[in-house]
Amino acid sequence: MKPSKNDETDLDSEAARRALDYYLNPNPPRPTLENKIWTLHEGVTSEQAQEHAIALLRCAAATAQETATHQHGSQRELTFALMHMMDMARALLEHRRGLETDG
What we know:
mainly alpha
């Protein structure tokens, strides 16, 4: 036999979850020009930002390569394609850096 349910005191669990989510996990505001997800510290030069971007791309490509070695089929090919795009972006930034230092 099922225990009787008192509708006045028992909460619907889905409604309770939604209520808690509304108050405890509000939707974050969408990023705008005034409300960015992240920003650079004041005083960071373009050269410093470019160097950091190159380092991030190098780490991301290495992570993709390591991940791809443990995959098979189309997932492996997709991960290697992602790694290749990151390597190309890094090469473009490094080329631009070379042009700036030469000129």
